[in-house]
Amino acid sequence: MTICSSNESTLYEFQLKPYNPLPPVPPKSLWHRFKRILYFIQFLIKSIPVWIKLIVEWIWPPAPKSISGWTALVTGGSNGIGHATALYLARNGCNVIIADLDVVNGKKTVKELLNLGVKAAMYKVDVSVYEDVVKLGRKIESDCGPVDIVVNSAGILPFMVDDEYTPENLRRAVNVNVMGLFWTTAAFLPGMYARGRGHIVGLSSRAAYTPLGYMRIYNTTKYAVRGFMEDLHDEIYHAGYEGRLVTTSVFPEIISTRRETTERLLSLPGSSELTVPTPEEAGKDIVNAIRNNKRKILVPDFLQTWQFALFE
């Protein structure tokens, strides 16, 4: 959705325009200040039904939605959290598509999925490349039909290399962890709008609430994922698709995935006391969140995200 337009086609062209400041805004009158108080009171009154709905659903939670027969795309689904999530989706009747650079384990995952009685396919793709993701979307639409669920689990931990701050490594981390989320959403969200049904999952990190330190690039990308998913939720709401198109933001702690990665993370100051869930626990929590239309979850889910935010 475009909220403004200009004659420039690129941001660079816009930057070259002479700066045109807005005239001074006249100070707010006493009446304007009074109106703001009235608007706030009106907001509180209008929010009462929302609070009632939340309380009722907390006491009598609605039945989980069925995703049997839906088609799910899992980026980074060859290993780790993505792999486990793909299997749990299949156990709930989802047809699953794996998109990953790791073709060997991707094909192994497809065999596991087929053994669960669902349709499955694997495509090699670099989610950081916009053109490749667009081609992937068209290919999947042609081969497998529309995608109902997108789980964005593809990601990299930049501090596993000798120097994560080289321009090449920094760009790679941002392009995979952040831009990949932009590209998959651009490729699959329009179809979800057209069909009036869909679910997008973004894997952020506990680091997007309480970073451990020594992970500046990774933490930055996960804060970006958190912000992207917040805004996507609001965009869907304002577009009038609330309840039909759903977003879920996932904030895992350290997960016992790749050995060298997990060991390196647990060596960081303050991390030794953290619980270390398995990918299977994370995958189960993610699929449960999808079925229950949860907007945010922590993994493990011993706290709610609003409680965790108190530590920020």
From TrEMBL:
Pfam families: adh_short. The keyword Amino-acid biosynthesis does not apply. GO terms for molecular function: oxidoreductase activity. InterPro entries: NAD(P)-bd_dom_sf, Sc_DH/Rdtase_CS, SDR_fam. Keywords: Oxidoreductase. PANTHER family: FI23927P1-RELATED, PKSB. Belongs to the short-chain dehydrogenases/reductases (SDR) family. This is Uncharacterized protein. The lineage of its organism: Eukaryota, Metazoa, Ecdysozoa, Arthropoda, Hexapoda.
